[in-house]
UniProtKB/TrEMBL annotation, chains A, B:
GO MF: DNA-binding transcription factor activity; transcription cis-regulatory region binding
Taxonomic lineage from the root: Bacteria, Bacillati, Actinomycetota, Actinomycetes, Streptosporangiales
Transmembrane segment boundaries: none
Protein name (Swiss-Prot/TrEMBL): LacI family transcriptional regulator
Record-annotated HTH lacI-type domain positions: 3-57
Source species: Actinoallomurus iriomotensis
Length: 332, 332
DNA sequence: TGAAACTCTGCAATCCTTTGCAGAGCGCGT
DNA sequence: ACGCGCTCTGCAAAGGATTGCAGAGTTTCA
């Protein structure tokens, strides 16, 4: 029932080759004929079958994106960027959620491989070795993961942490707690690294955790941080920061008067919390777009000269109301 | 470079037909041969090319899902359900975000049509007429949208509203505000309907709005509700409810002592607010799974007898700490 | 022993496009 | 009038898989 190139050819009174060329190499067919063909196609509602085209060109016009967990508020926004940019570049996108599971992730890459021109891996859960192995299955672009000279878009989370540390230092904080996220996570390592480096000079960092990178993890961590006598807390992510604030409120500790709190991610909720949370914003949607750009340019390159394989994205501290000058800079 | 069915055939010393059958109609090839073929395929890392298969079978093994806005926390969860169930049924899923734009949505359906066996439309932004028109382009399943006898999975939001109303009535509230969402939205109409019906007996509902279905819309609405002298507020969704609570806190109105607040959606943030928000939970992930089930069964049906084209999903009131007995049941 | 009845495998057509190659038609110079 | 060079179009193969049909081989039974 769907209309094929043959239908158009017959209706327009030309051969299929001509119809095909009218679409793919317009300058090769006479203006008059081309207009006629295109008009007929339009009238019949013809749209080339991408699968059939892919069979012969070797390009599918699709790309895949794999995320660890859709219900993590971090990912939908990068997905949105991927989606938007892909559509602009006339690619369709396959989505898969690997449920935080590396094995599943590998399976998904392999399942997708034949149907896509390339895959974007968001915060891959694979080990270094596993990643090395799937490289070559298809073109790969990583987001927030660094391995060998794989193409990647990396958020400068270390820089974000530096901004957070400088902000607290400028306010007069001297002893702050870092609430660590999952040990194995690349993001967590980067954040710790950025913080430690920035802190060296004038801030003492006491590191706690790891905690679950969720609201409950934050509630849990809050008490520990309180016992450490710090004046400020930097959480691995906003969810934890929110948990911290909630627990502090329960214990009657006022934020930011008695304790400053900084999050990371700038999830939509951050600005709506009481008090609105100071946090580091990461341009997720931009990251998604950048990944697509990178992938597409990779696909259009002849092979040899690859150009720049890395894209960096700045993070930005958003100062809201959860941070302030400490009452007693040395802790209570 | 990718390994094709021919490679397997050559390597296994059989014809391509046999290899094909070993995969698609195993009982048709002798056990011994089949094992040999399958083993060879495994060894070579062969995976059938779905596009090529689709060309001849007419089935692609893909389905599409279109959402209005990925950054709306409602959708990622249904997406997660779609994704998970699709994978179980061995379908890959195309994702698209139409940016709240009906025209774009239509274009996306058409662009997908050739590449998928069916499309799931989440809370479609199309008008009735537009929807009628795209029906037939491909198999369609709607989520939270009702039109003619199109297959759909519908959340019983009206029922959820009833629960909320009963809850407030039981606490002793007699006059409550409903903060309306977008007028054109099917969900909003359903929620109003459910509330009005449930309220008839013992609650007076004053309807305000429409407001933007976001945090800011809630802040805006809070003052108006306060002026109406109600003892409880039901918001179109959680985002608004959170905005209401934030604004009430600013104005020194204590929740739930002086004002009860009920949300809708049960977004992750709801339970983390202060106080934790009483809200209606909608099984988004289940909805996603149900939509896939419906679509798949639709595809496997011969054509004539279609069976049950509707799936209903119950909503459930989650009572947390933002609702309580009113100080003065008649308002202040 | 021979024929019938199966079971299994291979041939070749088919799905929808793209594309190399060759041919048709035309204009132009000689 | 002829041939050359263009431009444009058509033929047919190719791409990876499925499937109807027919043939090869084996078993069963008379």
């Amino acid at each position: 029932m769907p209309v094929t190139i043959q239908d158009v050819a017959r209706e327009a009174g030309v051969s299929v080759s001509t119809v095909s060329r009218a679409f793919t190499v317009p300058e090769m067919v006479r203006d008059e004929t081309r207009h006629h063909v295109l008009a007929t196609a339009e009238r019949l509602g013809y749209r080339p079958n991408r699968a059939a085209r892919g069979l012969i060109t070797g390009k599918t016009g699709n790309l895949g994106v794999i995320v660890p967990d859709l219900s993590n508020p971090f990912f939908p926004n990068v997905l949105k960027g991927v989606q938007a940019r892909a559509r602009e570049a006339d690619y369709a996108v396959f989505l898969a959620d690997c449920d935080e599971n590396a094995t599943e992730e590998i399976a998904l890459v392999q399942a997708m491989a034949k149907q896509v021109d390339g895959v974007i891996l968001c915060s891959s859960r694979m080990s270094e070795a596993q990643l090395e192995r799937v490289v070559g299955t298809t073109s790969l672009v990583l987001i927030n993961r660094q391995v060998r000279n794989q193409p990647a878009v990396l958020m400068d989370t270390a820089g974000g942490m530096r901004q957070a540390a400088e902000h607290l230092a400028a306010l007069g904080h001297r002893r702050v707690a870092y609430l660590s996220g999952p040990r194995a996570s690349w993001s967590n390592r980067e954040r710790r690294r950025g913080l430690r480096r920035a802190a060296r000079q004038d801030i003492e960092v006491v590191e706690l955790g790891p905690f679950a990178p969720r609201f409950e993890g934050g509630s849990h961590a809050a008490d520990l941080a309180l016992a450490e006598g710090v004046t400020a807390i930097i959480a691995y992510n906003d969810l934890m920061a929110l948990g911290v604030m909630s627990r502090l409120a329960d214990r009657g500790v006022s934020v930011p008067k008695e304790m400053s709190v900084v999050g990371f991610d700038d999830i939509p909720m951050a600005g709506m919390a009481t008090p609105p949370l100071t946090t580091v914003s990461m341009q997720n949607e931009r990251a998604g777009r950048a990944a697509v750009d990178l992938l597409v340019s990779l696909l259009n390159v002849t092979g040899a000269e690859a150009g720049d394989l890395r894209r960096g994205l700045e993070c930005q501290l958003i100062v809201r109301a959860s941070t302030a000058v400490p009452r007693d800079p040395t802790g209570r």
